[in-house]
Amino acid sequence: MERTSVPPIHNVAICGGTHGNELTGVYIVREMQKQKMEKAGSVSVTTVETNPRAVAAGRRYTEMDLNRCFTDVLLSSPITESTLYEVRRAQELNAQLGPKGSAEAVDLLIDLHNTTSNMGLCLIFYSIDWITLHIYKYIENNLSSVPVRAIQLDIPSSKAYSLESVGKHGFAIEVGPQPNGVLRADIFNVVKEALDLTLQWLQKFSSGHSFEGGTVEAYTFVKSVDYPRDSAGKATAVIHQNLQDNDFKLLRSGDPIFQTFSGDILKYEGEDLYPFFVNECAYYEKKIAFHLAQRKTYSFPPISVKND
Amino acid sequence: NNNNTARFDAARRVAIFGGTHGNEMSGVTLVNLWMQNSAEIQRKGLEIKPFITNPKAVEKCVRYVDTDLNRAFTQENLSATGGDELPYEVQRAQEINRMFGPKGSAEAYDVIFDLHNTTSNMGCTLILESSKDAFNLQMMNYIKKAFAPASCLVLLNEHPLLKYSTSRSVAKHPVGMEVGPQPQGVLRSNIFEAMRVILKHALDFISLFNEGMEFPPCTVEVFRVLERMDYPRDANGNIIAMVHPNLQDCDWEPLNPGDPMFQTFDGKTIHYQGSSTVYPTFINEAAYYEKQQAFVTTRRETLAASAISKTTK
Predict the structure, then answer these.
(1) Would an 8 Å CB–CB cutoff place B36 in contact with chain A?
(2) Tens-place pLDDT, residues A253-306
(3) What is the pLDDT of residue B1?
(4) Which of A202, B35, B229, B257 has a CA 20 to 30 Å removed from the CA of B292?
(5) Looking at domain B6-222+304-310, does it have CATH number 3.40.630.10?
(6) By the CB < 8 Å criterion, does B190 face chain A?
(7) Which residues of the sequence carry a binding annotation for Zn(2+) (chain B) (predicted)?
(8) Pairing state of beta strands A256-260 and A265-267?
(9) Angle between the A185-206 and A130-142 helix axes, to the nearest 10 degrees?
């Protein structure tokens, strides 16, 4: 592919606590604020604890999942007395870090998350974006303690519902497994390393470094699978032990996926796909036992910064 | 050695508590299953009652609504007046004490199993509240042997300051069953199955005892709770360090003086300063951040239990 020059990244926002019980981001942001991490070379760094009420309560959210509040519709809905806290908060964050889709929006927004699923470190993003793919590749090449993967959600910007869609470029860093309400040092250290690598890349990029192109294998969301349920809507099975903790291991027709409480084994039927977010705690209420993805290879060009 | 055999009445009334913490899913799921279909837990001559102790917390999938139910069974709470004005869990404690107690009386249930999960890497753990309960010690010996070669360890919390008033303390013989690691709100099949199996062994023991089997004297290795270790905190009470990667997930392994214990956010190691080797457990349990506990230290002890058999009438 041809060398591409890309507009500079002047500023980056690092966000934590979007889900109040996913603790790595909360403590990374607090530590960065304590260390007064405001600049990485010429790139200015903003840190934000996005859902302080949920963090104080030790809950994912207080009234509504903040990370579903960033669609164009919700960001422009009129605020009344009965507006849910997180809808209001999303609009505040959009004003601070956006507005989404405008020239004033932060150049890069990184949102830090944890999952109870065994997913290692994942970068989650909406669109195939050269900056994001280069950063992903840089992290993947330099981080060896955990698997590093890329997940793409093929959703147009107006319908994109999560915080990172507010930035001109954005991705979430999702790391697991870590229980809600628990802060593991190994996970903290991995996320800190990934952020250090990201800021390193941004500084190199800003100073005119040319990055080689390459390819990335990314997992693209296809569909979700719910638990089997009885007529009262209660789940009647648990994730089968062959699937539990085996995120990103190819699932084929005939593979066990659930075990009912009475001991029967339910098997997967369908095309070969990759499961992820297997047994994520927060998804029980969203009726998701796991997601399924296709794996695709994307090429990206060599890039360097376009001089203003 | 018949003179040294401790005699207990047959254990006719047994309860299995789930949902004492509403987000510890193995117990919630098992008890709900057994309330629908109790075939699996039935034993001849035994009345076994599965029971959800904190239904509001279960419905919201939280540990508790107003206050921790598993700390609520104090004499003060059990005799408090105030009805609906009382915190929800205090009301529940009084109701549970009426149904399965009264605590300390002859009418109380013989045995209560209280099912719990932990985010700590504790495996299968039985929790004992008294080193002198020969019936419980013999039960734990039986369960450990039946479960072997898989591991089932015994935690003894008899510490005058650190012991607490549990839901199960209403019974004559309270038995805690703690299985981890499992995140709050998550149901893992391996954890679920393990809890199911140790409970089966426990009910088998009671059944055998009731049929007249005599259990000879035995010894049981236990881990006795010594002290609670909090996270290092700043002047505002915020934690300033995390359980060190070398200690994380190392429940029941020796922690020696000088070993890494915590890691600060800027990467420094804080070492264990105790004078002797201890055995930490409940390492990084989510629910204990608010209780100022990063882990508890224990020491290994071997307890002797006398022979036991059923009283003959």
Answers:
(1) no
(2) 999 999 999 899 999 999 999 999 999 999 888 899 999 999 999 999 999 999
(3) 46
(4) B257
(5) yes
(6) yes
(7) 21, 24, 116
(8) antiparallel
(9) 130
